[in-house]
Amino acid sequence: MAEIRVHGEEADLEESTLVEGFPGIGLVGKIATDHLIEAFEMDHYASVHCDGLPRIGVYREGDPTVRPPVRLYRDAERDLLALQSDAPIASQAVGSVADCLSGWLDEAGVTPIYLSGFPAEKDGVPALYGIATGDGRDVLDSAGIDTPREDGAVSGPTGALLNLAAQHDRTSVGLVVETNPQFPDPEAARVLIESGIGPIADIDVDVNTLVERAEEIRNQRERLAQRMQEAGDEESSQARPLRMYQ
Fold this sequence. Notes:
The protein is an alpha/beta fold. The protein is globular and about 45 Å long. It has 7 helices and 12 strands. Strand 6 and strand 7 form a beta hairpin. The protein starts with a strand and ends in a 5-residue tail after the last strand. Helix content is 35%, strand content 26%.
């Protein structure tokens, strides 16, 4: 049965912002979301049990607690939610997972920030731009985030979530950052947080450790990054030039 199972008492989330961290190219969304959860010591608020998600149990070093692979964390003080995923979403499950999450987000009144990488050979600081549905353009304008420089499309679970938001005219924003297409990219994740998530969600988080621990993060995430690279467009959240689909 598809559901979002809240642990403990349900909270009023209407003014909250959700940061989505499904694995994708460069693992930029996952690295950024994991960092927010760790930096703010966010609470495990709910478990995601959407149809099509991998039926695996996840545990952490030094902690015997088994959790599902996709979870929601909450920081009540900052009105912030974060979706953490420890497994890729199979291509045939992308639609059902997006339907499940979109319905819950709409019902809860949460404003989502969807994250994606754009494969590029970076020259200096990775470029960041924003896309939007509903009233999301006003959010991007207020945060001073640039618009896309070329036609493009977002694939994978992130693309499916954006598609549903556009279909139903729900407010959401997407952040797309230039990223290394082959390896985990903590630098691109830093840009997502510093220049995108921070201004939109009105939060301030130390990102220095992302740079200091870049090599460690790459080593920890390299196998998952390789898995996402092999998965192709449907399974891996990523932005691509629109001409690749034409």
